[in-house]
Amino acid sequence: MAERTEHAAGAASRVQIGGSGRWAELTEGPGPERIRILAFHGGGGVDGEPSMLAPFARLLARPGVRVIAASYRTLNRDGAGLDDMRADAAAALHWAATGLEPEARLFVLGASFGGFLALDAVLNAEAWIAFRPAGLILLNPVVHTGAEGFCNRVLTAGHGGLSPVERFADSPLRGRLRLFVAHGTADEVVPLSESRRLSRHWAPGRCEVHAVEGAGHGFFNRAPHDATMADAIASFVEGPAPASRDLLPAGTRIAYGIGAQKAGTSWLYDYLSTHPEVCVPELKELHYFDVLHAPSERGHVRNRVRWMREAADLAPEVPGEDLLKCLQKIGLRQRQLMIYARRPGDHGGYMDYMTAAHSGQPVLCDITPSYAILDPEGFKEMDAIGDARFIFMLREPVDRLWSQIRMLVRSEKPGLGDAEYEAACADHARRMQAEGRLGTVHRVDYERTVRALEAAVPPERILYAFHRPLMIQSTADEICDFLGISRRPLPETPGKRGRTAALPEDVEKMMIDALKPQYAFAMQRFGDAVPRDWHKRLARGVQRRLPLLRKPAEGPNIAFLHIPKTAGQTITAEVRRVVGERAFSPVRTHAQAEPDAQMPPGYRFYAGHIDWVDLETIPEPRFAFTVLRDPKERIASFYFYLQREAKKLSEAELATGERTNMRMVLTNSIDDYFFGGPKGWQRFIHDHYDNFYCTYLVTRRIRGSEQVKDMDADALATAAIEAAQVLDGIYSVDDLSPLETDLNRVLGKPVKLVGNYRNAGPEAKQAKRWDALVALFENPKNVHRLESFVEADILLMQRLGLPS
């Protein structure tokens, strides 16, 4: 959005429309933008200005809604013609669509002549713009032009070819856009019958027609109809958009393999292509939706045109088999190009190609890894084709990147010997690192793809599958079950593998460092589903950054199971001071190593937010302990700490996978932070907040909520007491003197814990942070839900005799 002066919610301000020289009046409701309404005023193109819509815009600008009343040149004021007005409307649509957050929805509103401009702009837009709006809102619109339609000095009898009611008759946009029409029965400027005629092009479930009895032209801008219409439009824009399901053959669904590149999509294509219940096209990577939505991908069209020309140039001039082969190549490229030879929004060519070999199979399949770059609107368009399923395959990040580099070098430098090939691959990786590209490969940002996909497609229609060096039968079975087809055994012989090359240690380290955000996101989002090889690779990176001790450290071994916001920084710093830096394990968080490798051998002090499944591997003498506090206060302290730290970060830092928790705490209400969001986010919340003490003790994992989700509070607290028997002590943050005494005894040297607070926030002296936390909730039911997050932990502390 362009810069503007501050104003009260609901008041209008002026903004510039890109570089067009035009402007718009912006009326904003309170809160972050969820819905944008681009509005075009009436006036027949002769007169008029955005302020005509100001009273109605104020009624529409409800929480999360922004109304943009765009200006356009007119005949009397600017001496403009119809083409000028159409160009201004097109520029406004482009500006409004490209400046919108991915999760927000766009609607295009047109009143009277503005209805003509709204429809015309959408009809003429490029596909990636035309498919951005979620719907059209038309108020007594001009939809029929020419000699038998609306005529004036701007829209003349010769403009019949621009008539929206004719142009929408066979437009595929009807299956994508929802339609809201309101028209007065007493309108003498534009007859109600013309709006009814336009609405008949839409399926009933995608269209609302409001015939307002006795109302004339412009009725919506006057009482008593203004408030009624604003309420009706609010209901329309807030409502769910029904999906188009009329492009697929009856009883058929479509499966998309959207990547990632070099993550097993060729295996997926080969496996499904042999399945009798799946129809796959002759070409694995169709590059249809990526070409429509990403200008950077349009080279695929140019390449296919070039290949067809080259085949034609090589065609012999005499009959025979060679001529036949050339013609077959030309025909193949022609078929592949025909998928693009339709108007924006018309997927007929694509479906013709997809169904060319269809003979009743229940699943059609399009495996194109570069679909992973699409934004939510691209995925929405794919989903609107029909009953869709999306498969996204993820591969261990370093393996995937190294495979991609090998493929690129093999393509650019064919014929290299093994030694030269390995050196060229390593040089390519080092060059990417020097250019800052090693961790920013265009098609393989797992976090970006997952967020865009989940913003557009319901979770039940998404499958995340992890690539393995040799794909296993359970993965194939999972894919078949997801697609609703019978399970089929994997082929006895694995598919062909690309040329191998040893990965140098220094290159591996560079890759691990560059790809850390990908590991962090995957482990946060998918938890225990992440394969062990991801953890092993990341652990090797940790070990290479900090040298391991060559011999076991002398003295007692200490394991501090640090629960966030329980005086851990104070305790860790004091013990670390006594034992020395080299005796302190480099694994400080559970994401840095496999669950059973969180306590690597050769150290004297282990501390951090780590799993402790391998506690017994630490040699005796061993002193293992944890510290608890009032669980309500811990939740409140953790929440306020995250909020405080998030405000210190830049937008770029907040956008990384490692900062998801801070981004969510900063950009969501407290109700939505704790109890909103997709399934993966709710798993994160339960892992970190829901009776964390008991869960951590019972499962020995930071993220163990799934394992105990069916236990009631009493059973969970009882199990936690039993699990804690292997520890040497559980202490309270309210009185660290017993721990101070025990550590002095174990270490043989004094430590200072009492009164020595580190990392304490500005609210540290506040008596009840919990009260401040619950006061932020808007929904009282959510307070009761949050209280259930401490029920078992309070029982645990009571049974341990600790204050809670």
Polypeptide structure, described:
Helix 3 (82-98) packs across helix 4, helix 15 (397-412) crosses helix 16 (418-434) and helix 28 (692-699) packs across helix 30. With 804 residues, this protein is an alpha/beta fold. The longest helix has 18 residues, at 321-338. The strands form three sheets. An eight-stranded mixed sheet has the order 1-2-4-3-5-6-7-8, sandwiched between helices. A five-stranded parallel sheet has the order 10-11-9-12-13, with helices on both faces. A four-stranded parallel sheet has the order 15-14-16-17, with helices on one face. The radius of gyration is 32 Å and the shape is globular. The protein contains 34 helices and 17 strands.
Task: Give a quick precis of the structure.
With 804 residues, the protein is an alpha/beta fold. The protein is 42% helix and 12% strand.
How are the elements arranged and paired?
Blueprint: E1 12-16, E2 23-28, E3 35-40, H1 54-60, E4 65-70, H2 75-78, H3 82-98, E5 105-111, H4 113-124, H5 127-130, E6 133-139, H6 164-167, E7 178-184, H7 192-199, E8 207-212, H8 225-238, E9 253-257, H9 265-273, E10 278-279, H10 289-293, H11 299-313, H12 321-338, H13 348-354, E11 363-367, H14 376-383, E12 388-394, H15 397-412, H16 418-434, H17 446-454, E13 462-466, H18 473-483, H19 505-514, H20 516-526, H21 532-545, E14 557-561, H22 568-579, E15 605-608, E16 622-628, H23 631-646, H24 651-654, H25 660-667, H26 670-675, H27 679-689, H28 692-699, H29 705-708, H30 713-723, E17 729-732, H31 737-747, H32 769-774, H33 780-787, H34 791-800
Helix pairs in contact: 3-4, 11-12, 14-17, 15-16, 16-19, 19-21, 23-25, 28-30, 30-34
